[in-house]
Design goal:
Distance between the termini: 17 Å
Strand order of the largest sheet: 1-2-3-4-6-5
Mean pLDDT: 96
Order of helices and strands: HEEEEHEEHH
Number of strands: 6
CATH topology: Aspartate Aminotransferase, domain 1
CATH architecture: Alpha-Beta Complex
Number of helices: 4
Structural class: alpha+beta
Shape: globular
Low-confidence stretches: none
Largest sheet: 6 strands, antiparallel
């Protein structure tokens, strides 16, 4: 178990129309101008947009893997510890974060393939 930062970035690259922005300590990811994720290489963590109910469930079920980051605009963001999550689950959460920010027609064109 565990996902490297390089593997996470390859997962991000597999999504449609992702825009990256680099700050001093992190990368951020957007689709058509709407943010859906962050990556902090130094701490091997990522922040992903989720529904509020998913945020609550993830943190409650496995607080060693997930932390509440913040809530905003009806969404709950979670911090994911890359060394403690499997690739399949991370890929599903990443796609969901992307889908929550992507325009409906783009999300329909790029359904999750698993």
């Amino acid at each position: 178990m565990g996902v490297s930062s390089d593997r996470f970035l390859r997962m991000v690259d597999s999504l449609a129309e992702v825009e990256r922005a680099k700050a001093r300590d992190y990368l951020s990811f957007s689709v058509r101008g709407k943010r859906f994720g962050y990556h902090w290489p130094r701490t091997s963590t990522v922040g992903l947009k989720q529904t509020l109910s998913e945020q609550i469930a993830l943190v409650a079920e496995r607080p060693d893997v997930f932390e509440e980051q913040f809530t905003m605009g009806g969404f709950g963001w979670v911090v994911v510890h890359l060394p403690k999550i499997g690739a399949t689950e991370l890929n599903e959460l990443l796609y969901e974060a992307w889908r929550l920010s992507a325009p409906e027609e783009l999300a329909e064109e790029h359904q999750y393939a698993g």
